[in-house]
Amino acid sequence: MGMSYGMENFIAILPLLVKMAVVVFVLLLLPLPLTWIERKIAAHIQQRPGPMRVGWHGLLQPLADAIKLLTKEDHIPTDADRLLFRMAPVVALVPPFVVFVAIPFGEPVRLFGVDITLSMSNMNVGLLFILAVSGIGVFGVILAGWASNSKYAVLGSLRSIAQMISYEIPMGFSVIGVVMLANSMNLSDIVAAQSGVWNIVYQPIGFFVFFVAGLAEAQRIPFDLPEAEGDLGAGYHTEYSGIRFSLFALSEYLVVVILAILNVLLFFGGWQHSPFFLTPSLWFLLKIGFFIWVFMWFRFTFPRYRYDQLMTIGWKVLLPLSLLNILVSGIFMF
Amino acid sequence: MARSSTHKRSWIGWVFFTDLWGGLRLTLRYMFSKTITHHYPDFEKWVPYPRHRGHHFIKTNDEGDVNCVACELCSKICPCDCITVIPFEDAKGNRRPEVFDIDLARCLYCGLCEDACPADAIKLGQEYEVSSTRSENLVVHLEDLIAAPRKSDNGGQVMAAKLVKDEAPKSVTTGTSDGFDWWERISRKE
């Protein structure tokens, strides 16, 4: 009796375990192709071929880089706070992974007679959960900057903190319009609410604010002040090397992926309206890929904003715009 | 935000980011344009113009003797003191160099030795790949200089090539085609 009960329990949670394993595996490997794509895009924008020598068109270059990073000396500065220094990369890496708990990748599918949802948890406050958890990501940056005991790292992490806290506010406000339209914070419901028209049509300002705040939140050009090579060395991870550095790089790539996913889910209809030759989930992934490409395209087009400009954009442009967006959405819905 | 007063733009352009769109359009065009870099040293190699000042060579006359009369003017004028010449009298009673060493690691390829030479012996050629894994190999001797490649008539093209890996890695041109004019390829037709 006990045995079969345990077995039934196991079968019940088996799909969840499989989904977890797949997500973790994919997320850990995702930065490899992404670095290759990013370098290729950078190269072609600058009219050069990029990595060409390791594998076909440099396809194995990320693998070589990974081996290099893993075998490099993992140096901890003498005066660093060793415990925090070791903790920081993990603290930075956990939130992006946790966010994927709440992200749905398509309609539930039926497999071997069992309904399987394409998300780990179909939370009713999924959007709030994602915003809250990605807010925690800033702690990794704070700890890294503080523990390194280095000028550049502290300055970089101070900039990161100010930037991330400033831009979380317009980011949070900008999605309220979407929540109002869907009457739900559940991401699947938000996608379902876009079965008629994508939210981008009703919420162009909301999308604009979300997109720009997302760029700032991911610390990407034109808002990459925390890592401004010119003035800060490498920002908060100046003192990091080897595997710990690659954990930071991994978390930064995952944040980019999350932002692309959120842009698609909230404003571009998720897996709705897939063309006949694609399954909804593939259509969804294609759109995510498009947004990742757009982020990279932006990165190699724009210069960096000055710090006061960054704050001006956040507080004097995006925040009023997002509030205006809520007001206008409210009036229209009323 | 400091905007130039001489170049006045309408507020519409400012609100809808016309500048940013222009930048994005430019980089998008470049993203799908042909790359302009040489695939050196794996597939292509730049063959410099005949006027290029590269690896030295020493000319020989019709009798097979070197033109050099070991006057040591090149060694005297050399600003980095990288030429060593020791004269001797050969079997025909001519003054010739017994030793003619050039330290390529010190040479700055200014071409003053070529200008100073009264006997039309030392010249700077088009060869520019002198890398080596051993610094001793960078000191070239008389026989190396006689054997070094002469100036060729062609130059100023990118030629098909392949990398040869050994102690002195080199990119060697392959095929017989004249290559292509790189400057012509990168010129922008607006």
Structural summary, described in words:
The complex is a heterodimer of chains A (334) and B (190). Chain A has one domain (72-333). In chain A, β1 (109-111) and β2 (114-116) form a beta hairpin. In chain A, α2 (31-45) packs across α3 (61-71) and α3 packs across α12. Chain A has helices at residues 2-29, 31-45, 61-71, 82-99, 126-148, 151-174, 176-182, 187-192, 199-202, 204-217, 229-232, 242-267, 280-299, 307-333, and strands spanning 109-111, 114-116. Chain A has a two-stranded antiparallel ribbon with strand order 1-2. The longest helix of chain A is centred in the N-terminal third of the chain and has 28 residues, at 2-29. With 334 residues, chain A is mainly α. A three-stranded antiparallel beta sheet of chain B has the order 1-7-8, with no helix packed on it. A three-stranded antiparallel beta sheet of chain B has the order 3-4-6. A two-stranded antiparallel ribbon of chain B has the order 2-5. The mean pLDDT of chain B is 86. Helices cover 21% and strands 21% of the residues of chain B. Chain B contains six helices and eight strands. With 190 residues, chain B is of the alpha+beta class. Chain A binds chain B through residues 41, 43-49, 52-53, 297-298, 300-302, 309, 312, and chain B through 1, 20, 23-24, 26-28, 30-37, 39, 42.
Helix content of chain A: 55-70%
Oligomer: heterodimer
Strand content of chain A: under 5%
What is the strand tally of chain A? 2
Can you list the strand order of the major beta sheet of chain B? 1-7-8
Largest sheet of chain A: 2 strands, antiparallel
CATH architecture of the domain at 53-151 in chain B: 2-Layer Sandwich
Mean pLDDT of chain A equals: 87
* Most extensive interface between two protein chains, with residue counts: A-B, 17 and 17 residues
Radius of gyration of CA atoms of chain A, rounded to a whole number: 21 Å
How many domains make up the coordinates of chain A?
Answer: 1
Q: How many angstroms does the end-to-end distance of chain B come to?
A: 32 Å
Estimated structural class of chain A: mainly alpha
Uncertain runs of chain B: none
Mean pLDDT across every amino acid position of chain B: 86
Report the count of strand segments of chain B.
8
User: What is the ordering of alpha helices and beta strands of chain B?
Assistant: HHEEHEEHEEHEEH
Number of helices of chain B: 6
Q: How does the helix and strand content of chain B classify structurally?
A: alpha+beta
Distance between the termini of chain A: 58 Å
